[in-house]
Design a protein that fits this description.
Elements: H1 2-12, H2 18-30, E1 44-53, E2 59-65, E3 71-72, E4 74-77, H3 84-96, E5 102-103, E6 110-116, E7 125-135, E8 148-155, H4 159-163, H5 167-177
Parallel strand pairs: 1-7
Antiparallel strand pairs: 1-4, 2-3, 2-8, 5-7, 6-7
Helix pairs in contact: 1-2
Length: 183
């Protein structure tokens, strides 16, 4: 059932960003694949992320990812779970230790298809990342997980300085400041 709800959400998802429009149909098609939520699907699989922001929309929580050595939003593999909002919330909790996490969106916040380089015996593959807007308390203590080198609340006006050129993160940042995405 979660797969059907995800498919409907993707079919109804609208974005003004051409890069998302370019691969939206691939996300919908992937929901028909029985292995789409498993990392064993070597050509690519679903992942889920939490774009965590504070209630005043001045900061976002980013992690310095241990394997990729890049600042990213929190998230991870579905590992068979078809409810990607649940995956995003679980990953955000596990990777930050935050208990104040709250889904504040109206559904899918962003989608991104990106390549993951080969690592060991895992071949290069795509992540079909479905992202959700999540709010948390800025003053709650953070707990670093084994997946991260660091965690930080990054002020919106310094995100680009921290992440460098990262079109998908900058797109989420732009969406956060647009009135249609502000809750």
């Amino acid at each position: 059932m979660d797969r059907v709800i995800l498919r409907q959400s993707l079919e109804n998802y609208r974005t003004p960003f051409d890069e998302e429009k370019a691969f939206a149909a691939e996300f919908i098609e992937l929901t028909y694949d029985d292995d789409a939520f498993l990392r064993s699907r070597e050509q690519g699989h679903f992942t889920a992320s939490a774009w965590v922001v504070d209630k005043f929309r001045t900061h976002t929580l980013l992690t310095l990812h241990r394997k990729l050595n890049r600042w990213l939003q929190l998230g991870g593999h579905a590992d068979g779970v078809e409810n990607l909002l649940e995956v995003a919330m679980t990953e955000a909790r596990e990777e930050s230790g935050l208990t104040s996490l709250r889904f504040v969106g109206n559904g899918i916040f962003d989608i991104d298809k990106h390549i993951i380089p080969q690592r060991g015996d895992v071949p290069e593959h795509f992540h079909y990342d479905v992202r959700y807007l999540i709010e948390a308390e800025l003053n709650e203590p953070l707990t670093l997980s084994s997946e991260s080198i660091d965690l930080a609340w990054v002020p919106f006006d310094t995100v680009e300085d921290v992440v460098g050129y990262s079109p998908s993160i900058l797109r989420m940042l732009e969406k956060t400041s647009r009135s249609e995405y502000v809750i």
